[in-house]
């Protein structure tokens, strides 16, 4: 009898030990938020809870910052362009403020007031088309990040001219990814892969052992075909590419990253710009900007920023990798030429 009791106690203790230290509780969920497919894969005891909180946070960011939602703070600023400033939340205020610093850094290539041109082209929407020269010139006049008025005293933001409008599509996903990382860390998550429509953040190690492997998309091939692999932990990997969203008219492809100097989709020699950084907000802001700037300026800019690296692919299949990330990247597709300068 006593032996039976002892066995029972030992079994219960074993059970408690194993459920508490279950090595790999993993949760994976997909959603459609921020106009994109979100996939979160999280390891750890609180993975479910962490994902639920992250999703709530992403919906909140979308509601505040989407230019497509009538009631968002961005829409309110846009509706009041040339009329009045609009009080916004701290986070919207700081994201716009940060966007302006990326405009300055990229010499105006990244411009959050790009929306009139983005709407005119309508790429990825039912109304996508090649606009006339006149339409492009009229809308170009409205694009200028220097026309954003920021009033720190009451957190209000405005635009100087009527019909100007803000689009944070080039940076909001980066900010959102950082918010998800913070939530995961708060829940003690040590391993996760956060994918916000191709904006990737790899948290910790994969299965607590090896680095995460992230494929760099081949810009000439369908999604999922890679030119090589990046092996990393605790980094954001954000790519701006011509293959993300585009339409074809008269055998010519028109993609969704607009050069604020010309009003046309960027035609620099860079067709894919991947930024590797600690914070995804930096990766997102920079990837859109350097894509437009062209290879030489882009390489110089990224090499000058400490802790930020890049992989650029040019239209003639050359791959350029900045100095800090060369050990982590392996080019596997032999059609591409590796440049090490
Ligand atoms: P994606 O959103 O496809 O991952 P990006 O981060 O490069 O890629 O952002 C592209 C989006 O940014 C466009 O869909 C548009 O909303 C916006 N955008 C386009 N051109 C510019 C630009 N020159 N500056 C800032 N934002 C831009
Ligand atoms: Mg971007």
From TrEMBL:
Sorted UniProt keywords: FAD, Flavoprotein, Magnesium, Metal-binding, Transferase
EC number(s) per entry: 2.7.1.180
A Pfam match: ApbE
UniProt key word Metal-binding: yes
UniProt keyword annotation of Signal present: no
MF GO annotations: transferase activity
Enzyme class: transferase
Protein's name according to its UniProt entry: FAD:protein FMN transferase
Organism: Clostridium cibarium
């Amino acid at each position: 009898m006593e032996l039976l009791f002892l066995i029972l106690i030992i079994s219960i203790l074993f059970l408690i030990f194993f459920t508490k230290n279950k090595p790999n509780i993993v949760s994976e969920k997909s959603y459609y938020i921020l106009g994109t497919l979100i996939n979160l894969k999280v390891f750890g005891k609180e993975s479910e809870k962490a994902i639920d909180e992250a999703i709530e946070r992403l919906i909140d960011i979308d509601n505040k910052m989407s230019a497509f939602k009538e009631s968002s703070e961005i829409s309110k600023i846009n509706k009041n362009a040339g009329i009045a400033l609009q009080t916004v939340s701290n986070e919207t205020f700081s994201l716009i403020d940060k966007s302006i610093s990326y405009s300055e850094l990229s010499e105006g290539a990244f411009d959050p007031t790009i929306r009139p041109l983005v709407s005119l082209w309508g790429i990825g929407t039912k109304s996508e088309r090649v606009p006339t020269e006149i339409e492009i010139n009229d809308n170009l006049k409205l694009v200028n990040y220097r026309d954003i008025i920021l009033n720190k005293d009451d957190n209000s933001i405005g635009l100087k001219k009527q019909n100007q409008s803000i689009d944070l599509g080039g940076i909001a996903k980066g900010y959102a990814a950082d918010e998800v990382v913070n939530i995961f860390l708060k829940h003690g998550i040590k391993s996760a892969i956060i994918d916000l429509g191709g904006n990737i953040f790899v948290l910790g190690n994969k299965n607590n052992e090896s680095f995460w492997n992230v494929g760099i998309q081949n810009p000439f091939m369908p999604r999922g075909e890679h030119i090589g692999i990046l092996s990393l932990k605790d980094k954001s990997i954000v790519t701006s590419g011509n293959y993300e969203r585009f339409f074809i008219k008269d055998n010519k492809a028109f993609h969704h990253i607009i050069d604020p100097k010309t009003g046309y989709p960027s035609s620099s020699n860079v067709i894919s710009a991947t930024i590797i950084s600690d914070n995804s907000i930096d990766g997102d802001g920079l990837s859109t900007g350097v894509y437009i700037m062209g290879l030489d300026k882009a390489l110089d800019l990224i090499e000058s920023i400490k802790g930020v690296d890049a992989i650029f692919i040019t239209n003639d299949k050359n791959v350029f990798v900045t100095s800090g990330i060369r050990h982590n990247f392996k080019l596997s597709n032999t059609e591409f030429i590796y440049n090490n300068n």
